[in-house]
Specification:
91 residues; alpha/beta; 5 strands
Length: 91
Amino acid sequence: QSDNNRTLAKEGYVKAGLSTGDLEEAHVKKALSRHAADTIVLASSEKIEVASSYVVMPLSDASGVVVDRGTSAAFIQKAGKAGVEVFVAGR
């Protein structure tokens, strides 16, 4: 784990971006995102503001994020400011 990833993991989801605890999974997700027209992320509220060891991409690189109703208004606002469209499931 690099020093950069450790630092990002302490800062939470918005600053760290999209992350995973599995290096191989991170590489696969990076490749998929690079070749996709749009990247829509599904994020449950218990994973938001938590970063794993391997950063896949900055949140601002996603086209949108689908969250559940338990997601904080602060995260929704931060994601919007990052230029990411937020969809709340169940609304």
